[in-house]
Amino acid sequence: MILRGHKARRVADTIIAALAAALVVLFSAMVLLVLIQVIDRFVPNFGWFWTEEVVRILLVWCVMLGLPIMLYNYEEIIVDLFLLKPRLAIWRLRLAVALSIIFLFLLAKHGYTFTLRSANFTSPTLGISRAWIYSSIPIGATLGCMALLIRAESRAPSYPVHPEVTNQLEDDL
Questions:
Q1: What is the enclosing helix (H) or strand (E) of 94?
Q2: How far apart are CA 79 and CA 101, in angstroms?
């Protein structure tokens, strides 16, 4: 994927902003439905039994749509066990990004296959095809892979180097 120039970057920024807006809507609906579940437990004859399944579906969609946003904005959690010099740290991060792209590609591939296999089955409460539930996996993984590729194409350093490494390097000089 070649994203050169400001125009392509703006398109990617717009897609990420749209995903973030969709995520806000989905998460808000999930919170509202959980509130309805609480009311359902204490109000007799309320009986909205379908809310639990919808909340679970929305949770999966929120996680999978949040993945590309988090990756695009460099917001993943990093645990450094070893302090490396900046040059080695950058290569370690590049390796991590490459392995992440491979993992997300495989997740998208197998998620797509799983979604196709589940298309003929329906959810017990809602009666909708389970493909609607599982399609979030290949969509989120594909968008996450694209976010990592865009990030790698930007030629920016993957992450800032840990301050202790920078201080140690300056002391060595």
A1: helix 86-117
A2: 19
For residue 65, give both structure tokens: 């749509």
Q: What b/e readout covers 26-49, taking b as 16+ CB neighbours within 10 angstroms? A: bbeebeebeebbeebeeeeeeeee
Q: Is residue 153, in this structure, part of any structural domain at all?
A: yes
CA dihedral 141, 136, 108, 76 (to 10 degrees): 20
pLDDT in tens, 9-61: 888 899 999 999 999 999 999 999 999 988 888 887 777 888 999 999 999 99
Hey, is 129 helix, strand or coil?
strand
Contact in structure between 147 and 15 (CB atoms under 8 Å): no
Q: In the chain, what's the furthest Cα-to-Cα distance?
A: 74
Q: In terms of residue numbers, what domain contains 141?
A: 6-172
Plot region of 4 (φ>0 → left; ψ -120 to 50 → alpha; else → beta): beta
Q: Considering the domain boundaries, does residue 12 fall inside one?
A: yes
End-to-end CA, the chain: 39
How many folded domains does the chain comprise? 1
Taking the whole predicted model, whether its pTM rises above 0.70 is answered as: yes
Question: Is the residue at 1 inside a domain?
Answer: no
